[in-house]
Amino acid sequence: AAAAAGGAGAAAALWSEVNRCGQNGDFARALKPVNKILQINKDDVTALQCKVVCLIQNGNFKEALGVINTHTKVLTSDIIAFEKAYCEYRLNRIENALKTIQSASQQTDKLKELYGQVLYRLERYDDCLAAYRDLIRNSQDEYEEERKTNLSAVVAAQSTWEKVMPEDLGLREATYELCYNSACALIGQGKLNEAMKKLHKAEAFFLFALLFVQDVTEEDIEAELAIIHGQMAYIMQLQGRTEDALQLYNQIIKLKPTDVGLLAVIANNIITINKDQNVFDSKKKVKLTNAEGVEHKLSKKQLQAIEFNKALLAMYTNQAEQCRKLSASLQSQSPEHLLPVLIQAAQLCREKQHAKAVGLLQDFADQHPVNAAEIKLTMAQLKIAQGSVTKACMILRSIEELQHKPGMVSALVTMYSHEEDIDSAIEVFTQAIQWYQQFQARINYGCCVFQPKSPVHLSLIREAANFKLKHGRKKEAISDLEELWKQNPKDVHTLAQLISAYSLVDPEKAKVLSKHLPSSDTMSLKVDVDALENSHGATYVRKKAGKLAGDNQQKEQGQGEVKKKKKKKKGKLPKNYDPKVTPDPERWLPMRERSYYRGRKKGKKKDQVGKGTQGSTTASSSELDASRTASSPPTSPRPGSAAAVSATSNVIPPRHQKPAGAPATKKKQQQKKKKGAKGGW
Question: Where are the coiled-coil regions (predicted)?
Answer without folding.
Answer: 94-149
